[in-house]
Specification:
homodimer, alpha/beta, 4-stranded parallel beta sheet, 6-stranded mixed beta sheet, about 35% helix
Chain lengths: ~450, ~450
């Protein structure tokens, strides 16, 4: 592993992470005389903006994931390794991977991404909430939500059924808004014909947001529109609502318990743990502060990009948000700076070109903005724009036709494409959801704070 | 759970299993004045004949699975429950499900299916072999096979790489033949562009069969054709080859070890454990002997159908094979006999109408027979017939268009649709596949018999 198969004279570039940032960097180096190794813990690149559709049984994982090595198959200067990077030695210039072997580099681009953040309160918040950052987490949510419906169909007790059919989404950012809208759609659709004992009126979707508005990255007028559209869909939005505790029984706000079998957490992300291996002080969200050229202090050959980087634009105060376009643009920029370094030229500062943002709300509603908020769309028009942009970006995927058809079908026929409960012994999960262990009942109610 | 929501005067029919048999029975009772409860451990009906395509990353699980309650949504006299049947009381006439509650019946149709059978040698054969009966098992195989390629790309040692790229399929029935053909296709396709360190010539697919021929249910001439076609695809078929032991290191035949990281077992199935609850003596494969009308001895109101039933046709000696058409025909027949019993008429004997059998071999080859073997097809023509029949039967599924497109794409573009490694920490699996624990090495080699 320590010697690449290509000629050692070519500069070795290691890229950690095959997300939007890492892939963009690798592709930007396609025609260059470098030897690239891309390391990722998954074998697939994930079209993360649509992950909530997998969680909501609208798409299959394969519709939004493609093997990284397939994406890069025609780029002979890259080799892709499925590996977990467990350490970095920036002085000796190598990464240590899971089997203990070294992967050496002259240049390093770290694009390891973000993970769900419970702000140090894993015990109170994390243990019974579901995050949404990976395919497996999305499948977990799908399993839980579908099992809750199954358990509700079996339940004889009215209170139990109500709890099973209450779904709480915490966090009013784009992911939370999209999930809540899709959950409401799913409940209405699924409940319409398929069940016998469940009354459609019983399903509740709650969206809880700590701040006084939704969608912090968006124009405030769009946030209000999003709120209206969610309410039209029947989502109960509670702003200014900080959750104190999540238990098997539900969500505690102050001492008030909202019984719910399914709680999904989208209220925060933080940098991947690999940030800690970079000998730089991280910010409060575990992100790595980077210099204007995206390198880190003291190591002009080491770049950090995407969700893991804390990049504050010149003259700005807030760091750039963790969005796919930011990561992709930074990936291309880091690649360019690697090349400049190789050619002994000074690196250049990164400038983000904001192309806009969008969030979908259920089957035919969305909000979208472009040109720094000067162009704003809502409703069906925004949804069509959203659809177009997402299909367009899936163009690199083999399965855009399949995705289109799945959507088409699921929007037209009001059905869901991938309503599949996988994993061992789903009936036990259904049972557990219906009747959480009695011990936790007492604890939870007795210790709200 | 003990009282159905419908009027108790209507005869209650409980169907266990939502496979081809159970669904056919439920549908045959659609317009009848009965109250049906269908119990299944999964929430989905599975199009099992295509399960090997999921294992080989050609299709997503959702392409071949559909929620049982969606299939039956327009049939108001059925309710579907996700439940594990843990006991049956045929005298008191109820099933006991996982939460301890009873589901009562006047008529019972047991269609619980089959599971992988290691003939009582789980220790020697079952522990390191992968079965293929459920979606989760298919995903397991997919994960293992794709991880073996990933581990091979990382491996420095020639012998390790050879072992990782050796895939053994045990059992030369339809499933084994189809798997081996698809594996060979997958290896050739995957290896072509995507990897850097693997030499395509290294991948080996072995198909081991204990008997002296393949495809026992087929005309012998077709079995020979299948053998030829598999060999054209590069599959190494060994007939008359009985495996003595399967370990983490490979397969032992006598004392000869064939090193292989992936061993798939399709050499036998036996009846689901529920057969044991029917107070009837089971046959050697755990199947329930049924009478000509499909009911069991002593209980004219209890019917067993499909893979779980041992039905010997009148004048025949061999029981009917475990095939989807057998189960579906038996399902409809059992439903008809339930109705005859309700109306105090004598039940009728079941007669199987053999519509033929087919098995696909890789991308464009197959064997097919109809009219009791008088009509035989091989090669591309058989493959097209196979494609047509399978798409046709998927017509009940919402996703036939999506499946068609996936296939079309994967056959035309020589790519694979769902090459996704899911599950936690795939790099650890890759590592384990590359280096099985040293303790088992000694044991395995020292104790071949």
């Amino acid at each position: 592993m320590s010697e690449p198969s290509t000629a050692p004279a070519r500069p070795r570039v290691v890229i950690i992470g095959g997300g939007f940032g890492g892939l963009a960097a690798a592709r930007a180096l396609a025609d260059e005389d470098v030897s690239i190794t891309l390391l990722d813990r998954a074998n697939h690149h994930l079209f993360q903006p649509l992950l909530y559709q997998v969680a909501m049984a609208g798409l299959s994982p394969a519709d939004i994931a493609v093997p990284i090595r397939t994406v890069l198959r025609h780029q002979p200067n890259v080799r892709v390794l499925l590996a977990d990077v467990q350490g970095l030695d920036l002085i000796a210039r190598h990464a240590v991977i899971d089997d203990g072997s070294y992967v050496e580099f002259e240049y390093l681009i770290v694009a390891a991404g973000a993970k769900t953040n419970f702000f140090g309160r894993e015990d109170a918040l994390g243990r019974h909430a579901l995050g949404l950052k990976t395919v497996d987490e999305a499948l977990d949510i799908r399993r839980r939500v579908l099992c809750a419906f199954e358990a509700a169909e079996r339940a004889n007790d009215e209170a139990v059924r109500r709890r099973l059919l209450t779904f709480v989404v915490i966090g009013g950012g784009a992911t939370g808004v999209e999930l809540a809208g899709a959950l409401s759609d799913l409940s209405r659709t699924v409940l319409s014909d398929d069940f016998r004992a469940i009354d459609p009126g019983e399903a509740r979707v709650l969206l809880l947001e700590r701040a006084e508005r939704l969608l912090p990255g968006f124009d405030p007028r769009l946030a209000v529109k999003a709120l209206e559209q969610l309410r039209e869909l029947g989502v109960q939005v509670q702003l200014g609502s900080a959750v104190d505790r999540i238990t098997e029984r539900g969500v505690l706000i102050g001492s008030e318990l909202t019984p719910a079998a399914t709680v999904i957490w989208t209220a925060g992300v933080c940098g991947n743990e690999l940030g800690g291996a970079l000998s730089v002080e991280l910010d409060g969200s575990g992100r790595v502060p980077v210099r204007p050229d995206l390198s880190i202090a003291g190591f002009p050959n080491v770049f950090v990009i995407g969700d893991l980087a804390r990049f504050v634009p010149e003259g700005g105060t807030a760091p750039l948000p963790g969005l796919a376009p930011v990561a992709a643009q930074q990936g291309r920029h880091a690649a360019k700076n690697v090349l400049r370094r190789i050619r002994d030229r000074p690196s250049e500062s990164f400038r983000y070109v904001d192309k806009g943002a969008m969030a979908t709300i259920g089957r035919s509603r969305a909000v979208a903005q472009a040109l720094g908020g000067r162009l704003r769309l809502t409703g069906l028009l925004a949804w069509l724009a959203w659809l177009f942009v997402h299909i367009w970006f899936l163009i690199d995927f083999r399965n855009r036709v399949s995705v289109l058809l799945n959507w088409f079908w699921s929007y037209i026929a009001y059905r869901r494409g991938a309503r599949l409960i996988t994993g061992d012994r789903p009936w036990e999960l259904a049972e557990k959801l219906a009747a959480p262990p009695p011990s936790s009942r007492t604890t939870d109610v007795a210790a709200p704070k």
